[in-house]
Amino acid sequence: MDREADVTVSESDRLHSQLSRFEDMFPGYRMEMVEGAIVMSPLKPHHNATIWELWSALKPQLQGEWGFLSDVAIPFDGDNEFCPDLAVIPKAEADKNLGAYPPDLIELAIEVVSPSTVHNDYEVKDRAYARHGIPNYLIFDPYKAQCTTLWNPGPDGYRGRDVIPYGGTVVVESGIGKLSLDTSVLPVDPSAVS
Fold first, then answer.
1. DSSP three-state, residue 177
2. What is the pLDDT of residues 78-120, one digit of tens each?
3. What's the Cα-to-Cα distance from 99 to each of 20, 68, 75, rounded to whole Å?
4. How much is the pTM?
5. Radius of gyration over alpha carbons of the chain, in Å?
6. Are the CB atoms for 74 and 106 separated by under 8 Å?
7. Which residues pair with 146 in a beta bridge?
8. Which is nearest to 153 in space by CA: 145, 141, 161?
9. Can you give the three-state secondary structure of 14-40, one letter per residue?
10. Could you tell me where the DSSP H helices lie in the chain?
């Protein structure tokens, strides 16, 4: 990994412990620090089902040297501590079972959109993930029944972007291999516009 982490592990632990206090006070909500504000997102069944389907599809495709994080703190800077729905990092790092990890470990970040996270998932995290050199970012949106794939990170966001409607296969050419995800098995919110 040649990307630099802006936050040290000890700073990560300190930031994560701040969010942990809130998580204990509000069960059923996911907590993140986004642009200096603590953001609480209620968890819904479609959200978790999407993460589970993606994890299950990716696991057999990745070599044994890759591991997963889900909803684990990734401090980016003093104002942003994200908890990606799913992130692929080296297995040796994931096996450490830490409460927080530096963003330079992430090879693939995945977010599943909730009504309260639309701006953060599509805009804030697009810029932050790209600035930190995360090679691929996927946004699965059960409210629009689509996946947005982002690649070629730059200082202002990702330079490559495709939007793929649910129903087909999303193919990601990445440094960790060619990954295929069948979106026909992903849940779609009943309010989704066809």
1. strand
2. 788 888 999 999 999 999 999 889 999 999 999 999 888 899 9
3. 10, 13, 11
4. 0.81
5. 16
6. yes
7. 141, 165
8. 161
9. HHHHHHHHHHHHCCCEEEEEECCEEEE
10. 9-25, 45-58, 91-94, 118-119, 125-131
